[in-house]
Design brief:
Mean pLDDT: 93
CATH topology: Vanadium-containing Chloroperoxidase, domain 2
Low-confidence stretches: none
CATH architecture: Orthogonal Bundle
Strand content: under 5%
Number of strands: 0
Number of domains: 1
Structural class: mainly alpha
Order of helices and strands: HHHHHHH
CATH class: Mainly Alpha
Radius of gyration: 18 Å
Number of helices: 7
Shape: elongated
Length: 191
């Protein structure tokens, strides 16, 4: 059963990675870079200050702690599980299209990019609660995660588990933040 799932995972990865194009390579490379996060973070901070005023530090702190948690845990799980990235998997490493000679670290389960981006997207969506912002955040997290498969540094299962972990952490931090705010008597604006 596990071998069948791993085979399916590889086939889907090879399909996605096989859709590469010369013009798309630099775009996916840029999307996967740390710089691509800055506009989304700036938008969240702007919207948070606008909505929460002097209490803006509360959702910013919650989002920061959510991000730190997804990042640290995903790194530690990679080192514990030690599942090779597609670019390091002996059976397929010669088949994948590699951009800018980038292969990532040795291990890829689970995707920190997926966990971080979906965790950050969801917790910020829960605080901002604007339809256009929700669509923007979800599209951003989805394209960040897709870029990791395009670059062949994560299998779809790595992305899926990262997605699940990221949204779980975001929900937990949002609920905890709301409970702490209620208990301490801060008056966050309500919709």
């Amino acid at each position: 059963m596990i071998e069948s799932l791993e085979l399916i995972d590889r086939e889907i990865l090879l399909f996605i990675n096989g859709l590469h194009a010369d013009w798309l390579d630099p775009i996916m490379w840029a999307i996967s870079s740390n710089w691509f996060w800055l506009p989304m973070i700036a938008l969240f901070i702007f919207m948070t200050v606008k909505r929460f005023g002097k209490w803006c530090w509360i959702p910013i702190l919650a989002a920061t702690l959510c991000f730190a948690t997804t990042d640290v845990v995903s790194h530690n799980v990679k080192e514990s599980v030690q599942r090779y990235r597609p670019t390091h998997t002996p059976e397929i490493q010669e088949e994948v299209h590699i951009v800018n000679d980038y292969r990532g670290g040795m291990y890829g389960f689970f995707s920190g990019h997926a966990a971080n981006s979906f965790g950050l997207a969801l917790i910020t969506m829960l605080f901002i609660r604007r339809k256009w912002y929700t669509i923007t955040a979800l599209c951003w997290a989805t394209i960040v995660s897709y870029s990791r498969m395009y670059l062949a540094v994560h299998y779809p299962a790595d992305i899926f588990v990262g997605f699940c972990f990221g949204i779980s952490v975001a929900v937990a931090f949002f609920i905890a933040t709301k409970a702490i705010v209620k208990r301490t008597g801060f008056n966050l604006p309500r919709e």
